[in-house]
Structure formats: C-alpha cells, structure tokens
C-alpha cells in the first residue's frame, strides 16, 4: 500500500463557484492531511490573477489545482485555456484535477486534452476519492510532491 | 393507375374513438385486366376505403411505395412481372415489407403455387371466381389486423419517445439532487467528527448520515439507469493492471469491513494482470460487489477477492461467508428493482438496482457475470472479462 504521507502537498487550490463545496473540500483536505495549505476561489478570474502573480515565486505556486467545470462567470474550460496561456512559466510539478458533478464522457475527454489535467474526480470530494486520487497520481507521475525544490 | 374519381372517392371518414384522426383504409388492387379490377373494387366498396388500381407489377410497386396501402390484393398471373416477383420486392423493402398481401388467381390452384405464394409473404390466397362473402370477410379481417398493427406501431413510437423523455427527466432530477445530498452527508460527517456530542445526538446524526448516503446511492443508481436506457452509456477503455486497481479499491472498502469485524483479502494469480477496460466502471462493479459482501456478512467472517487469469480472460470472484441467496431469487438478481429476502446484517438498505447496473457494465465489456450461492453457506459473485491486451 502506498504511504499516503509521502503524498502530502504543500499547497492545494480549489477553483469552484460553490461556497458550500469549498467549505466541504477545504475541510476534507485538511482532515485527510492531504496538503499543508488550502486556498479556495469562488471566482475563476481571481484565481487566474493570483496564479499569474505567483508565477515568479515557484515555492508559493499551488502543487494541485482542483477545478470545477460548471461555473457561471468563467467555466472550467475557459479557465484551462487561459491557464495554458501561462504554461511556459508554470512550475512543472503543478497539476490540475477536474472536480465536477458532471460525469459526461465528452467533458472528460475535452478536459484531458489539456496537458496539465491529471485526473477527473466526481463531486462530492470525500476521503475515499482523495485516497483514490493519491493512487492515481502515483500511477501517472513520479512522486511530485516533496517540499519545493531549492536550487 | 390511381383512381380518385367516381364512387371510389372517399368523402366519408371514420373517426377514431379517442382521437380526431381520420382513418381511411387504402387498398391496392393489382391485376393485368382492368375489368377484374373494377369488379373487385365494386365488390369491396365501402365508405371508409380508398382504392388504388394497378394493371402491372411495376405500377403496383410505385403506388405501394407512395401510398403505403393497408392491404394489397395481388393477381398472380401477370405479364412481365408476376405476382410472386411483386411480393418478393415488397417484402425486401423496409417501407412495404409489413403490408399484408392477399393473392388472387384463377389458375395455379396447385398446392405448390399456394405454398410458394405463402412463402413469398402472402398472408392468404383467394381463387377466382371469387366468392363474394368469403372475399369481403377476409378483406375486412385483414384490414382490421392492419389497422391494429399500425396502431401498435404508432403507440410503440409514442412509448419510445415518452421513455426517452422520462430518462432525460430522471437524469436531470438525479443530477440536481446529488449535489445537495452530498452536502447533507458531508456536513453530518463534520459534526460527527466534533467531540462533545451527546450520545443521543450522535445516534441521530448517524441516522441522518445513513439515510442521506442511501438516498445518494439511490440517486446515483437512477442516474446510471437513465444513462444506460438513453444510450448515453459509454466505456472509456484504457490499459491498466487490474490487480493493482482491485487492491486499491479493496483497501478503500476495508474500513467498512473492519467496522463489522470482517476480514477482506485479495489473492491474484499472477500478481500482475494488464487488461484493457474502463477502470472507473470496473471500480463501480467492485465497489458494488464488495459492499454487498460486507452488507450481507455476519461479523467475524471472511471475504476473499480472487483474481485469476485464464488464457484470454480474467476472472474476478468476490467470495463471502454470508447468508447466501435462495435459489429461486438468484435468477432475478440481475434484473432491475429486484430485492432479495436477504437483509443486511446491520440493517443496511438496498436500492435493488446495483446488480442490474453492474451486469450492464460487464455486458458492455463483452464479459459475463454469475452468482453461485447457497443459503447459510455464502455467495460467490464472479465476472469474467476479456483481457484485450
């Protein structure tokens, strides 16, 4: 069995317009000890601005971004396009996980076309799906997630 | 030759009992001799019938395709294309294949011809000279059957459309219910995690938790059913190690097993089996089989997951030492909304949909699923999947 402690992240971000979902997700990540720091953004535009401003400080950049797809002001696909615009500068270890109540295959395929998208998790996020995600990330990538590298 | 004039013109129509649809029976009469056609038309004339007359096979086929008559009366002996050929063509065309054909002939009373006509799709055979009463009675019966068939087809279409709408609505409702139910479930968990709760309140919260989880499960199942029924059910094939996948799923289910003092083990031969399948859907299958095994097992017993590779297939068995299922209920297990007389050992509830859904998932992978169970001895649910390497 995987040592889930090895998977503890420094910084996890949620981009989701639902305040209730954000409360739940923040608490589940905290209780599971999945990450040291959690930030939630109800407005995707603000999240993008934050990410843009954080690009120069790699250690401050989120290791994992949980992204909702169905959001009124800017949906997850538009977010991904704009995020991809920053790709050249994004720290390599940073990943995106789609977190949505939709389980449409088309949306899953569309999201996976973005190279940062590592997984597709169905809401509600719970301890089980976090454990599963740990497995999945361990399968698809080498352990990413040690404290930020210092050169 | 399409005849619209004289006494064959329809002016009176019959009203359907429950709808204002005008029903007219269209009859196509085919004979190379026009006088025979007029005489037959005269014999069968009624207010709610419209006649189309054709003096050759070709003309008959054109009219049949355009008008889709309720009945075709077809002369066997005609120059160029005889009645048998016309019938064969009508049977081979999707638009005309269900139109009943009544053969009419003066010759070929020979049994062989009658047999051929019936084999070519005729529903009946009349010999000239025609007996007026027999002819009228047979035509009336065939028209009535034809109307009933049309009505059935119409109603079937209507039902298919309604079923599609039902599935769409079911899907939407289930999807919208899932979010709020998830919230109730999550916040109940959060309160339960807090210390300083009265014992009674813990019990109440556990009831809320159990009820909302059951509702969520039911809603998820309904969503699956709506997807399967409306053809939106697709598999995402990917290549992965089935053993590692199942070990991971089993680990997640172990907490529930331990809560009932059950042991849960996985044995795989060999220890790595790569297959091409839909990993998420197989997780759903394994979760269902494991949660059933846990649900119906008494504490202190064992649950074993056995994964075996046989040549081109892999077989996964979930073996429990639970209550077992009576033989007469085993046959219905994989049908929707079937609940068995067996009850969860800790009062767990069932939706009656889980096994029907996982059977669909296994079927979609071109696999098979079966149950082997004896009351009091436990159950083994096994599915076999092609490896598809």
What is this structure's SSE topology?
The complex is a heterodimer of chains A (151) and B (389).
Chain A: E1 9-15, H1 19-32, E2 35-41, H2 44-54, E3 64-67, H3 76-84, E4 95-100, H4 105-112, E5 117-122, H5 127-140
Parallel strand pairs in A: 1-2, 1-3, 3-4, 4-5
Chain B: E1 14-15, E2 22-23, E3 25-30, H1 34-44, E4 49-54, H2 57-67, E5 71-75, H3 83-92, E6 101-105, H4 111-119, E7 122-127, H5 132-193, H6 199-229, E8 238-241, H7 242-259, E9 263-269, E10 274-277, H8 279-295, E11 302-310, E12 313-320, H9 327-330, H10 354-364, E13 368-374, E14 378-386
Parallel strand pairs in B: 3-4, 3-5, 5-6, 6-7, 9-11
Antiparallel strand pairs in B: 1-2, 8-10, 11-12, 12-14, 13-14
Helix pairs in contact in B: 2-3, 5-6, 7-8, 8-10
CATH class of the largest domain in chain B: Alpha Beta
Helix and strand pattern of chain A: EHEHEHEHEH
Helix content of chain B: 40-55%
Strand content of chain A: 15-25%
Q: Biggest chain pair contact, residues each?
A: A-B, 20 and 20 residues
Oligomer type: heterodimer
Number of DSSP helical runs of chain A: 5
Using the coordinates above, name the CATH class of chain A.
Answer: Alpha Beta
Largest sheet of chain B: 5 strands, parallel
Biggest beta sheet attributes of chain A: 5 strands, parallel
How many domains make up the coordinates of chain B?
Answer: 3
Question: What is the SS-derived class of chain A?
Answer: alpha/beta
Structural features, described:
The complex is a heterodimer of chains A (151) and B (389). With 151 residues, chain A is α/β, with parallel strands linked by helices. Chain A has one domain (4-139): Rossmann fold. Chain A is built from five helices and five strands; from the N terminus they run E-H-E-H-E-H-E-H-E-H. Chain A has a five-stranded parallel β-sheet, with helices on both faces. In chain A, helix 1 links the parallel strand 1 (9-15) and strand 2 (35-41). The N and C termini of chain A lie far apart (32 Å). Chain B is α/β, with parallel strands linked by helices and 389 residues long. Chain B has three domains: 6-130, Response regulator (Rossmann fold, 3-Layer(aba) Sandwich), CATH 3.40.50; 162-229, Helix Hairpins (Orthogonal Bundle); 238-386, 2-Layer Sandwich (Heat Shock Protein 90). Helix content of chain B is 47%, strand content 21%. Chain B contains ten helices and 14 strands. Chain B has a five-stranded parallel β-sheet with strand order 4-3-5-6-7, sandwiched between helices. In chain B, helix 5 (132-193) packs antiparallel against helix 6 (199-229) and helix 8 (279-295) packs antiparallel against helix 10 (354-364). The two termini of chain B are 63 Å apart. Residues 1-20 of chain B have low confidence and may be disordered. The chains are: A alpha/beta (151), B alpha/beta (389). The A-B interface holds A 1, 18, 20-21, 24, 27-28, 31, 101, 103, 105, 108, 123-124, 126, 128, 131-132, 135, 139 and B 175, 178-179, 182-183, 185-187, 190, 193, 223, 234, 236, 240, 244, 247-248, 251-252, 283.
């Amino acid at each position: 069995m995987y040592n889930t402690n090895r998977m503890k992240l420094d910084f996890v971000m949620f981009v989701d317009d639902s305040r209730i979902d954000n409360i739940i997700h923040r608490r589940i990540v905290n209780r599971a000890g999945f990450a040291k720091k959690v930030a939630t953004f109800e407005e995707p535009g603000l999240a993008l601005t934050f990410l843009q401003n954080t690009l120069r400080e790699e250690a401050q950049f989120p290791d994992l971004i949980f992204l909702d797809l169905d959001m009124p002001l800017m949906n997850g696909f538009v977010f991904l396009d704009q995020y991809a615009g920053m790709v050249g500068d994004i720290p390599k270890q940073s990943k995106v996980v789609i977190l949505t109540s939709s389980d449409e295959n088309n949306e899953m395929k569309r999201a996976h076309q973005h190279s940062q998208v590592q997984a597709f998790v169905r809401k509600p996020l719970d301890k089980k799906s976090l454990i599963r995600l740990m497995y999945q990330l361990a399968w698809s990538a080498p352990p990413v997630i040690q404290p930020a590298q210092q050169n | 030759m399409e005849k619209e004039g004289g006494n064959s013109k329809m002016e009176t129509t019959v009203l359907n009992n429950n709808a204002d649809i005008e029903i007219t029976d269209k009859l196509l009469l085919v004979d190379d001799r026009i006088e025979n056609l007029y005489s037959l038309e005269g014999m069968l004339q009624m207010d709610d019938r419209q006649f189309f007359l054709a003096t050759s096979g070709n003309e008959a086929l054109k009219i049949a395709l355009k008008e889709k008559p309720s009945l075709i009366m077809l002369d066997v002996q005609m120059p160029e294309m005889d009645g048998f050929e016309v019938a064969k063509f009508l049977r081979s065309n999707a638009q005309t294949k269900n139109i009943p054909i009544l053969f009419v002939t003066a010759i070929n009373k020979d049994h062989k011809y009658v047999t051929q006509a019936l084999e070519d799709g005729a529903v009946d055979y009349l010999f000239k000279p025609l007996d007026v009463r027999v002819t009228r009675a047979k035509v009336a019966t065939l028209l009535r059957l034809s109307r009933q068939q049309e009505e059935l087809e119409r109603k079937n279409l209507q039902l298919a459309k309604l079923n599609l709408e039902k599935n769409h609505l079911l899907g939407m409702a289930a999807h919208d219910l899932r979010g709020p139910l998830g919230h109730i479930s999550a916040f109940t968990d959060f309160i339960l995690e807090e210390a300083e709760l009265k014992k009674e309140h813990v019990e109440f919260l556990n009831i809320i938790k159990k009820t909302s989880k059951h509702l969520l499960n039911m809603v998820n199942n309904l969503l699956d059913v709506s997807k399967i029924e409306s053809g939106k059910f697709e598999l995402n094939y990917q290549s992965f190690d089935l053993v590692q996948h199942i070990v991971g799923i089993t680990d997640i289910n172990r907490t529930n097993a331990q809560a009932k003092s059950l042991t849960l083990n996985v044995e795989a031969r060999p220890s790595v089996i790569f297959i091409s399948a839909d990993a998420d859907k197989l997780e759903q299958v394994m979760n269902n089989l494991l949660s059933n095994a846990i649900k119906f097992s008494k504490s202190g017993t064992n649950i074993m997951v056995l994964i075996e590779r046989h040549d081109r297939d892999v077989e996964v068995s979930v073996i429990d030492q639970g209550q077992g299922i009576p033989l007469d209920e085993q046959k219905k297990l994989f049908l929707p909304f079937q609940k068995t007389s067996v009850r969860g050992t800790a009062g767990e509830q069932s939706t009656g949909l889980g096994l029907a859904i996982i059977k669909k998932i296994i079927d979609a992978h071109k696999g098979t699923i079966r149950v082997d169970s004896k009351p009091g001895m436990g159950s083994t649910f096994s599915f076999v999947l092609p490896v598809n390497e």
